[in-house]
Model the fold of this input.
Amino acid sequence: MNAAAPATATQTYDGRALINGERVAALDGQTFDCTSPVDGRLLTAVARCGEADIDAAVRAARAAFESRRWSGMAPAQRKRIMIKFAEAISAHGDELALMETLDMGKPVKYAKGVDVNSAANCIRWYGEAVDKVYDEIAPTGANALALITREAVGVVGVIVPWNYPMIMAAWKIAPALAAGNSVVLKPSEKSPLTALRLAELALAAGIPPGVFNVVPGYGPEAGSPLALHMDVDCIAFTGSTRVGKQIHVMAGQSNLKRAWTELGGKSPNIVFADCPNLDRAVEAAVGSIFFNQGESCNAPSRLFVEASIKDAFLEKALKLVPNYQPGNPLDKSTVMGAIVDQVQLDNVMRYIGLGTSEGAKLLAGGALATPVQGGCYVQPTIFDGVTPEMTIAREEIFGPVLSVLSFTDAAEVVKQANASVYGLQAAVWTSDINKAHGVARALRAGTVHVNSYDEDDITVPFGGFRQSGVGRDKSMHAFDKYTEMKTTWIRIDSPV
Ligand code: NAD
Done:
């Protein structure tokens, strides 16, 4: 897979929904065009599902759940099938990576090395957990037995964004399926292809028809009917805070389904002058904001550098910027690819314009790039002299734009870092163990890194405080979202 043309010239994609184990067109026959941000090529027509299609998928999921062909399967067997599903993802890694790159623009190197591997690992990890989770007996005394058990909630609706399409889906479908639920997944209209292929691979691995359905379409047309459906027991959403709020409203307006949301961020990265390794801090700050074209919910988009080292820090940072110039995402050496579409590219450019007009100093980038004709590319961008009230210090840009602020006092920087509606992730760099613990404890974020930024493992929870969402993905804690807790009292009238 060295260059675009030979590998993709013969590529054809099936954009139909997958409901009850079968590929189907939308019931009204409507489609939408799926085009590539790499070069603007048309990839395929995708089923534009609506309320009737969502209803068909939910009915199939409910029937599968009630039949107990998955929920009632012996845990060891469910485990084997999940692991087979994970192995199929790895075996089709090149195909899935190319599809993801063409669909949403990320470099193929990361689509394979990060997205495919993480999705497969996630499915395998939850698969392996299936027959290792025990329930509880409460210490109630001799005359009764109180069993505390976990049961699948039933039908789980999943709505995901476009930035890590396979990973975001895997974080939800893996624990949901492992717990015995049936799933209806609505991928983003900007990146629907890999979700459909994952469902095919799941089916081939032995996940019974109706257990894992994928219904592509637009948010208001397909996402809302799923969140509002009276026979969906739980809705798990990853996306913007704006839509996440609507998801909670829709859950309340319908059947009070359980609603879990992983939302936006504006994560602070705080570097003190006694940072133990300035080079590593610079690499992490620059690498993490430009990774995935800045389209990461946890990107460290607010960089706070202690005033006494700011010039030295920025000098090193600017030397790294040329490494992140956008290239053809299909080229294996590219580290920064295309922005997902023209709408998002315009959005990023609007924020860059606001940065300049509100008085921040443009240190690098700020302009469009054209590594491939017809694609959506922007230069990696750094603004210095950003102040907390500026728009680029407050709002999530979701693009490769770093806002640099400076500080002189620990209490002051913690206050500024916490002055956000979000609370997804944060970092602190210092050699002082007291400062590290004190600042980490004071930061209002679901994850805090000390002297790193990108540590990551399926074993640890991921999610946010405040308007970054409700609930946690990953780790054994994710099972809590997709199971109901039941207490069963058994009276014991013992003859002995
Ligand atoms: P988005 O909210 O626009 O869309 C997300 C999903 O919701 C898509 O599938 C979309 O079709 C659907 N949707 C849109 N309107 C809807 C509606 N009215 N009803 C139901 N569904 C609807 O977000 P996006 O632009 O796709 O993704 C970017 C956002 O996702 C960013 O804010 C980012 O921070 C967030 N995100 C968060 C995490 C996390 O774990 N916290 C991870 C990745 C992305």
